[in-house]
Design goal:
Bound molecules: N-(carboxycarbonyl)-S-(naphthalen-2-ylmethyl)-L-cysteine, fe (iii) ion
Number of helices: 2
Structural class: mainly beta
Largest sheet: 7 strands, antiparallel
CATH superfamily: Alpha-ketoglutarate-dependent dioxygenase AlkB-like
Mean pLDDT: 95
Oligomer: single chain
Low-confidence stretches: none
CATH topology: Jelly Rolls
Strand order of the largest sheet: 1-2-13-10-15-8-3
């Protein structure tokens, strides 16, 4: 067998926290297909600024695809099979999205990942996500896979309590992170997006978050 060229070999994956794996550039080869699939989803279920239970609209615009979608309103956070804005089921999860999420999870040591929910977050300059935990899902043994596209962002990663000190992690176009094990329950957020222009996607960052919700 010829050896793979070291010039084109995949860079080593980083485990930067217990169970969390950063796969730099893992989505790059599929980016055009991913964005086309996102575009098809948000044509059916447009981005919207959901209300937090505290009555403030989020600065991040959201949509979903898959069997269930993450929703928020005055009653709280939860997963629902229907888009409340359209009174219709969420668009199906495009195969290219589900396949990428499964490949990334497997690369991080979580084989057989079959997400039923994909939250699509759209950040424009200034948009942010304050420190929170993802705890609306049934089984915390299931990892979460996130894909970053477009403008770079600074990701904040803490611990099991809100006051734990946080580390900053820059996330770039094409980066994929798999959050499993203990890291699955840790506080995290996104600093206000810096102004900029992505050569292809313009003044925005798109983030896909794949979860097994039910
Ligand atoms: C760490 N989204 O939608 S993705 C979210 O970039 C969310 O839009 C951010 O946090 C974004 O809930 C961050 C990275 C991420 C997603 C889920 C996690 C990190 C996580 C769950 C547990 C721990
Ligand atoms: Fe989150």
């Amino acid at each position: 067998m010829p050896q793979q060229s070291s010039l084109f070999a995949e860079p080593p994956h980083e485990a930067f926290a217990a169970g969390a794996w950063l796969l730099r550039g893992f989505a790059l080869a599929d980016a055009v297909e991913l964005v086309a699939a996102i575009d098809a989803v948000v044509t059916l279920a447009p981005f919207r600024h959901v209300m937090t239970p505290f009555g403030k609209p989020m600065s991040v615009a959201m949509s979903n695809c898959g069997a269930v979608g993450w929703v928020s309103d005055r009653r709280g956070y939860r997963y629902e099979g229907h888009d409340p804005e359209r009174n219709l089921p969420w668009p199906a999860m495009p195969a290219v999205l589900a396949a990428l999420a499964a490949r990334a999870a497997a690369a991080a040591g979580y084989p057989g990942f079959a997400p039923d929910a994909c939250l699509i977050n759209r950040y424009v300059p200034g948009a942010q996500m304050t420190l929170h935990q993802d705890r609306d899902e049934r089984d915390f043994a299931q990892p979460i896979v996130s894909v970053s596209l477009g403008l770079p962002a600074v990701f904040l990663f803490g611990g099991l309590t809100r006051t734990d000190r946080t580390i900053k992690l820059p996330l770039q176009h094409g980066d994929v992170v798999v959050w499993g094990g203990p890291s699955r329950r840790w506080f995290h957020g996104i600093r206000p997006l810096r102004d900029g222009e992505h050569a292809w996607l313009g003044r925005q960052r798109l983030n896909l978050t794949f979860r097994v919700a039910r």
